[in-house]
Amino acid sequence: MYQGDVSMKGMRWVVLAVAASTSVGISANGNLGTVANLQLHLPTNMGYVQLAGSPTFDGGGCSQQWAAASLDDPKFMTYIWPALLSAKNQGKSVTISVNGCLGGFPKIDWIQLHPT
Questions:
Q1: pLDDT (tens digit per residue) in 102-111
Q2: Which is nearest to 100 in space by CA: 44, 72, 62, 71?
Q3: Quick one: pLDDT at residue 116?
Q4: In the chain, domain spans
Q5: What Å distances lie between residue 53 and 42, 65, 81, 90, 107, CA to CA?
Q6: What pLDDT, on the 0 to 100 scale, is given for residue 58?
Q7: Facing residues of 111 across strands?
Q8: What's the predicted TM-score (pTM) here?
Q9: Angstrom distance (rounded) from CA 105 to CA 101
């Protein structure tokens, strides 16, 4: 196993691993559920997600039933958006964590897919 510098990317995987090993449904600034709605909105250049039951995401200064990310974020478009589409199509649950605000919406920080 590589034992070099710990990067932010590496830290996120640690957070995901810890989250995966717990049975808590809601983490700090995160919600667990199935994807109810996905929307790409070109006028705002953002992608939005809403979970079933419309739980409120709190990005710290913004609370909405939708979480969002920029379509200009290559990591969001490459990894997160396709994973959300897959989860919606397969009816799998996800944990979506938000951090900060983007255009008045909680900004998606990371997601975790669950097997059921």
A1: 999 999 999 9
A2: 62
A3: 72
A4: 8-113
A5: 25, 9, 20, 18, 19
A6: 96
A7: 96
A8: 0.74
A9: 5
For 49, the token pair is: 């997600």
Calculate mean pLDDT across residues 3-25.
40
How far is residue 60's CA from residue 19's CA, in Å, rounded to a whole number? Answer: 20
Neighbour count for residue 109 (Cβ, 10 Å): 18
Residues shown for the chain = 116
Cβ-defined contacts of 110-115 (< 8 Å, 24+)? 110/12, 110/15, 110/16, 110/80, 111/80, 111/83, 111/84, 112/16, 112/19, 112/20, 113/83, 113/86, 113/87, 114/32
pLDDT tens-place string over residues 36-67: 999 999 999 999 999 999 999 999 999 999 99
User: Any idea which architecture 8-113 has in CATH?
Assistant: Beta Barrel (2.40)
Helix, coil or strand: residue 100: strand
The alpha-helical segments, DSSP class H, found in the chain are: 8-20, 74-75, 81-90
From residue 109, alpha-carbon distances to 1, 16, 90, 99 in Å are 26, 12, 22, 6
Question: What is the spatial distance between Cα 24 and Cα 41, in angstroms, rounded to a whole number?
Answer: 32
